[in-house]
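Morning. Coffee machine broken again, so started the prediction first thing and wrote up yesterday's gels while waiting. Chain of 121 residues, entered below exactly as on the submission form.
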Amino acid sequence: MAHGDITHIDIPVSDLGAATAFYSQLFGWSISEPPGFEGYPMWRAPNELSGGGLAPRSEGFTQPRSYVEVDSIDDTIAAALAAGGSVAMQKQPITETSAWAVIVDPDGNHIGLFDGVVSMD
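Came back before lunch.
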């Protein structure tokens, strides 16, 4: 994927098992927990392009969150701050080759950032 592409959508849920059953039955999504991502069911749409995760709902995570692929999380955070945004979650590693963070736009929308490579094979 390229800088600016939507790469992932997390859906906050209260019951991972019930949500897995609901979304797989409703939309035909393939949902599994790849090695290293136990407790975080990952979904893939039938088009094999769209995907994301079912993540535990929390106080700061109550609505679906889209993640945008960026060339550099650090540079994107700096640009967001300069443009009037803020940071909800600082950069954190996912794997040795990938990381994520969450920024907030001036209207209060939370946007996830992703950079790197994650293999689900």
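The chain has one domain: 6-116. Going to sketch it on the whiteboard this afternoon.
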